[in-house]
Design brief:
The complex is a heterodimer.
Chain A (H helix, E strand, L loop, with lengths): L4 H5 L1 H11 L6 H38 L1 H6 L3 E2 L4 E2 L2 H32 L2 H16 L2 H26 L15 H25 L3 H9 L4 H30 L2 H6 L18 H8 L7 H34 L1 H17 L23 H40 L2 H5 L7 H10 L15 H32 L4 H15 L2 H13 L10 H26 L2 H9 L4 H29 L3 H6 L17 H9 L4 H30 L5
Chain B lengths: L11 H4 L30 E10 L2 E11 L4 E5 L6 H8 L9 E9 L2 E2 L7 H7 E4 L11 H11 L7 H11 L3 H4 L12 H13 L5 E5 L7 H14 L4 E5 L3 H7 L2 E6 L2 E7 H6 L4 H7 L5
Parallel strand pairs in B: 3-8, 3-9, 6-7, 7-8
Antiparallel strand pairs in B: 1-2, 1-4, 4-5, 9-10
Helix pairs in contact in B: 4-5, 4-7, 5-7, 7-8
Classes of the chains: A mainly alpha, B alpha/beta.
Amino acid sequence: MATSPAAAADPGARLRDHLARTKTGSWLDPWVKGGLTALAGLIFVLLVYFLFKLGLEAEPVFSAYGLWDFVAKVDWLPSQDTYGAGALVAGTAITSAIALIIGVPIAVATALFVTELAPARFRGLISGTLELLAAVPSVVYGLWGFLFLAPRIKGAEQWVADTFSFIPFIGGDVSAANYFITGLILAIMIIPIVSAISREVMATVPADQKEAALALGATRWEMIRTAVLPYSRAGIVGGSMLGLGRALGETIAVAILIGGATAGVGDSIFSQGSTLASVIALEFQEATASPEHRAALIGAGLLLFAVTLFINAIARAYISRSESRLERAQRDAARASEAAGRGDLPKTGRRGVFSWIPRPELVTSLKGRKRVDKFARGSVGALTALALLPLALLLAFLIIRGGGAISWSFFTTDPTGAAGAVSNASRFLGEEAAPAATNDLGGIRSAILGTLEVVGLAAAVVVPIGIAVAVYLVEYGQGTWFGSFVRYLVDVMTGVPSVVFGLFVYISLVVSQVGGVPFAGWKASVALGLLMLPIVINSSLPVLRLVPASLREAALALGVPRWKVILRIVLPTALPGLVTGALLAIARAAGETAPIIFTAGVATALAGDPNGPLNTLPAQIYADVTASSSAQHDRAWGAALTLVVLILLLSLVARLAQRRSRLS
Amino acid sequence: MNAPNRTYDSTDAPSDVSPTQHPDAHLGERGTGTPAPATKAKGHEVALRGVKSFYGDNMAVKGVDLDFHANQVTAMIGPSGCGKSTLLRSINRMHEEIPGARVEGEILLDGVDINAADTDVVAIRRMVGMIFQRPNPFPTMSIRENVAAGLKFNKIKDVNHDERVEWALRGAGLWDEVKDRLNAPGVGLSGGQQQRLCIARTIAIKPDVILMDEPCSALDPIATLKVEELIQELKEEFTIVLVTHNMQQAARVGDRTAFMYLGDLVEVDETNKIFTNPSDSRTEEYVSGKFS
């Protein structure tokens, strides 16, 4: 027995002995906490440096024109060294407005259809298909819009322009690339996000409210009008704002489709133009020669950042307000459903954003009400079909055209740089056209491997950092000012358009030739990492919060130091959700184009060294789409199919990981 | 013996499979608080001296002096918000995990102040185990891993884990129900079984004291009965503090009962006396159901 006579006489000796000899590892706790806090603080340092660097570089243009003149002047003429961002601001506003006008009603209709009208067996299918739309990278939308949609609807556009020329801003000659087609593609791109958020909000409408409306004799549409829509209004508006934020910052699809005219706004929605984001992507290379041009582009980037920040802030406020609006919406819904039951007109005059929706209260006969119901439900179904149509077309053409381009050698050879690729490279890099040895274009091996390398490098660094920051926020930052501050900074970072991150890395790493070369794969990884960081943090936060506090307590009460609780209990419990979040962030980054063409440069040969130009799939697609030869267009389709399959695989694995989660 | 973590009682781990099987387990004179001297079932005393617990500036426990006798169940009763759970969580210093919370006063375990500023709270918690309101087995772990979690996390290597797991599960009265599925996930058990699993997890590291925070509040009557029987058995080996909302439970399992009200300890005495002839009129009103 270890119990010595002394210990028996003094029971406290045993305890003192235990306390003195036990190594608990709790000395690590302050270090872990300090380290995680420092990592979270890194985000602050990063954002400050980011703003400082962009502000410093843009300073010449703001001091030359003044903020107001820079924003208001509509002439952006690099050849004359005149920079007024007005046309770009207008172009951004026009395309985003078109996207919202077309996209939001369709998105809301699909959400209604999925949550209220569709037969149960179609619901998962439709929402899954819409999520598929969200996984398609923007360069593929640009490709599809440019090579498929634009030529086919040009005739219709011209007809509209001729027939309705009496309406302002419609008429004149339709150019293949124009504001309208850009807005249309942006609408398709924002439908998934707006629809997803609307769906989430509509799913929270209490069943008893809907049943109350139905029990009072309301038709299904009247129930939607009186119970579902008022309840989910704030969420729909918030989701639309997030969609708007995405439309404002969208770069590469816009750069392909909008034409790139910068002298003035143009006189109709069928004119060519530019947006803040597209001008950066299209002109950054020419700007290396002119400091003032570069400052102007960075000024445009800052402007874009400020606008998206503003819009995102409003969106977030709206979505969080939907909770506090709950009571009001409940009251409204109850009152309105009573009115609908009586066939009365509601006495309140305020109609809000849904005033265009047929008002069943105005139709008092049962027959009329049924007709309204039928019409409204039919329209919602038709709009849903309309939302799924472009996806079907896109996927069909991707598979047919892309599948046709794919062969074994497509994956095993590198692009040779032949044909249009040369003129394209010279357009982007100002390089001398390399003599084409052969007419064989080559495949996309270097692009695939380059994408894996760039994205893998970014993920390897950023995923652990992002999860660590999320752990800090959940385990230590809860309720502290620093925690809320970091949380806010992460929100700010989420709103930064990817092109602005690309620009930032371009001016801070590429121009200054860090590492001895201007363009390098690792610099693209930095840009993608900046993009992924807030996504990883934001997707990890709710998962970590879902880990019940009782598990942490159970482990702590067993005598486990805090850092070990995090490592052995919190992280393993949250693992499936963390994997899902990381994979979705990777999938998002893999499809990004704008930050890559700023940073990785253009290369065709296979290169393993990240400290040198690398080819990537999005860059390859972009280069091929903007080239003129149809052979390159075919390769673009093939590369796009490869990229989409790659991203879908990632999303699929993410979904499977989520299903394994033990947290609800 | 060269066990750095446990210097007492390690010999009974492998061979004695149940704490109830000690032939000399019933040595203490029940109720007097003075167990017979120098046996290996000799328990450990906890004494609170002027314990005050704060949430920020709000004092939830207002200076409590209270002794928890070895090998006894001390039940703590009182209306919601009276500070009994806070006091319980102060003993193993879980209270401090809440931001802004702190504890003043002395908490003496075998005469050693475990609330002293320089003591390692993590080491304290190995001596003072805790059972929570809701069963909280680790969802990523099997039944076996759950019970062995404390041994594993604390790197206790000088005991055979499988034997200790069996000992703890027998001690928690769960062995016969789970022995064929030790590798099944712990969360797959019923609520009552989960709570007994948590008890097994706590006793597996052989603490001196077990704190129970309304351990039956999430259980059905039959599961409650089982846990209460278990508590009676566990006190042969451990000092038990039981916070409960249920006065019948306090009367059934408590050797002594403490009544707290508004952050103060009103009185503590033999359970019988508290429920039949309390000294304080507030206690009488509470146990007779005049307020809650």
